[in-house]
Design brief:
The chain is α/β, with parallel strands linked by helices. The chain has 2 domains: 4-322, ANL, N-terminal domain (Rossmann fold); 396-505, ANL, C-terminal domain (GMP Synthetase, Chain A, domain 3). It contains 15 helices and 27 strands. Strands 2-1-10-9-11-12-13-14-15 form a 9-stranded mixed sheet, with helices on both faces. Strands 16, 17, 19, 20 and 21 form a 5-stranded antiparallel sheet that branches. A 4-stranded parallel sheet has the order 4-3-5-6, with helices on one face. α1 packs across α2, α2 (31-45) crosses α3 and α6 (168-182) crosses α7 (199-208). The chain is globular, with a radius of gyration of 23 Å.
Amino acid sequence: MSTFVDEVIRSAEKVPDKVCLISGEERQLRYRDLLYASGAVQTLLGDVKGKRVLIAAKRKEDFLKSFLAVMGAGGAVVPLDNFSLDGATFLIQDAEISTVLFAGDTLSKELVDGLQSGNPELDVIELDRAGNGTEDSPLQSHADPDSPGLFLYTSGTSGRRKGVVLSNRAFLAPAKNVNPAMGYTGEEVEYICGDFTHAFAIGRMRCLLPVGATAVVDDGPFIANQVINSVKRFQCDAISSPASSFIILERMHREAFRDLAGQIRVIKMASQGVPVEIKRCLMEDFPDTLIFQNYGLSESQRVTLLEFHRDEKYLESSGRPLAGNEVRILDEEGNEVPTGTVGRISVASGALMTCYWKREDLTKNRLRNGWIVTDDLGQLNEEGFLTFCGRADEVLNIGGLKVSPLEIEELVSGYLPDHEFCVCGIDDPGGMLGQVPALVVREGEEPLEPWKGWPAIRLKLAKTKPTIPIPKFAFKTGEIPKTANGKVKRKALQEMIAEFTANRDS
């Protein structure tokens, strides 16, 4: 059984002079150069086999070289996604980090000094010392397929952050299923949105490098015009991104984005909820493009796949399980429910995590006989298509009626074509229904204030007599809080609204 590093080395041997990564306007890295540069980092690291290594690198090229070096040396990568002393200290202590590998433009001297003073036995290494490497010391692979290769820490929106441990075998497994399903051969030039420190973007590299394809990235945050310009400049025939970026492109930059239709062969989006209205816009704007969306989670990545044009009848779903994956829907007692019934999504997969780091009780509760029972709610139809219905801890209880915020977002999406928005549950001010839905729209600069545009839209919605509850309250905000991979932090919004209303009433 090969590992991701084994596959990258094979690609470098097969197409050494091919460009594997285009980063920014000028930097192009060939496969052979990637091997030499990662090998130099490996030499700098020394012996990290069986240890956890924290990687702090904002530039995607730096992160990729470090990622390969640590995995190839038999260590486990722990990406730093919160570049603060508190964020780094938590990961160092929780994951029992032995080594911090950092880029000089990522961590300040003060932060590095703070880490070392608080953890005197920590080995802190500056990545810049590695240089570009030479053919005399290329990347080596000493990774055991069943040893930990990657720790993915959850965002902590539902409590303390959890370390999801993926073996080298589990990390590579999705590529073996996704590439054939998407028809990838290695000729692709794919633009990747998103941060490599999170599951989606590094997951796309996991698929591209083993087949010898080319990835194009920009460092820094998502900027729609920059994405469109880079796709044009480097003649990308594929683009992948968290779903939120495609929503922005379609709602706010549609004309410029659809000009790429004759160039883009494949669109791949992550597993967050996307209104059917946006999916249909993409199909209209890209009639000859393969448009894919998947369902997955940190604990078991890339479970299902939906292709919009082929599966048009099932656009509300996230597709059917990929080869090597199974999905069941369970009730709260762990029994399988009838087709069409909403329950907890349970997954069996070759990409299944090993455990939650140092959380034996939680691991035992979630991992059951080769299956993971998730916090996600969903339903399967008779054809096996999975519809994601939200997280169990986000479902609104409106006077005893259980409603997913995704259902309400789908209801109002047609009335807000030019806005980024979301729905969360708040305590019913009247004290009658338990919770009521609230709409939050991104508009203006204010942290939070009532949105005056909502009453007229709400009246139009009310006239349609929907069976789904309509938001009673609406707020506008300068920024909707999200995790780094684009998921809305609904609990954070609930807290913002509660604080706002409390201050207003006092």
